[in-house]
Amino acid sequence: MSSLLTRIRQEIEHWTRPSWSFAMLEAHFDELAADYDEINEGAHSYFRRFTDTLRAADLPDDAYMLDVCARTGNGTAYFHRHGKVGRAVCADVSREMGELCETRLQEAGFDNYRWVQLKDYQWPFADGEFDVTLSLESVEHFDRPDLFIEELGRVTRPGGTLILSTPNVLWEPVHALAAITTLHHSEGPHRFVPYRRLRHLVSLAGFQIMHAQTTVLVPAGPAWLIDIGQWIEERTRDTLMPLVGLRRILICHKLP
């Protein structure tokens, strides 16, 4: 009972905390690192952040990519296997995640990368350095999403591509309940960004939204349930899914 009450208190704190530091994010993801891939292995929704992005975005081949909050490197490795990454920077707040990321990329046979730790909103990259910037389920973990997206705009070259995904705010209670019941890990410090504000911030950062899509109706479960969820998704892509889908995906072009 005491552990349950602790988890409830922690999730309430995450919901109500007005601001948080990079050090708090680092501590949270350091704690998750050892079990991160194992936990997400059973989550259908986790791998779809990569498969849906590849399907929806017309990414150039052999691009110079920045993977922001790369976690254990699965995204960079996935896009490398499909010929979309020539060289990469994997950036994150967590050194523990970084060590796993480097191991995963070496195992994948990809060595043309470097790992960088993010410690504040002034990233150590040049203006317009990257062809592609990848930010999958990351912006919501930063207490200043405006500064986070502003940096995405600064480091993406004119004509380059930003892929940004984030959870639908309607799923915030579901994420909290999953953490409380130990069905999934806690989101830690975070604040889901309302869709209208997200689009506004992306535009302010100098991007034109070329494609927007909401995906994932059934994030986990038996194969038959996931299949039903995908069947519904395909038939309600422009009606039901924008309202109730789990993940918002924006594919953006950096304006000159």
Q: Which regions are unreliable across 5 or more consecutive residues at pLDDT < 50?
A: none
Assign an overall shape.
globular
State the assembly state of the protein chains. Answer: single chain
How many helices does DSSP assign? 11
Radius of gyration: 17 Å
Q: Summarize this, please?
A:
The chain is an alpha/beta fold. It has eleven helices and seven strands. The protein has helices spanning 2-16, 22-33, 36-41, 44-56, 74-81, 95-107, 145-155, 172-180, 195-204, 223-235, 241-244; strands at 63-68, 85-92, 113-117, 130-136, 156-167, 207-215, 247-254.
Describe the protein's topology.
Layout: H1 2-16, H2 22-33, H3 36-41, H4 44-56, E1 63-68, H5 74-81, E2 85-92, H6 95-107, E3 113-117, E4 130-136, H7 145-155, E5 156-167, H8 172-180, H9 195-204, E6 207-215, H10 223-235, H11 241-244, E7 247-254
Parallel strand pairs: 1-2, 1-4, 2-3, 4-5
Antiparallel strand pairs: 5-7, 6-7
Helix pairs in contact: 2-6, 7-9
Structure write-up:
The protein is built from 11 helices and 7 strands. Helix 2 (about 20-35) crosses helix 6 and helix 7 packs parallel to helix 9 (about 195-205). A 7-stranded mixed beta sheet has the order 3-2-1-4-5-7-6, with helices on both faces. By secondary structure, it is an alpha/beta fold. The mean pLDDT is about 95. The longest helix has 15 residues, at about 1-15. Helix 7 links the parallel strand 4 (about 130-135) and strand 5 (about 155-165). It has helices at about 1-15, 20-35, 35-40, 45-55, 75-80, 95-105, 145-155, 170-180, 195-205, 225-235, 240-245, and strands at about 65-70, 85-90, 115, 130-135, 155-165, 205-215, 245-255. The chain is globular.
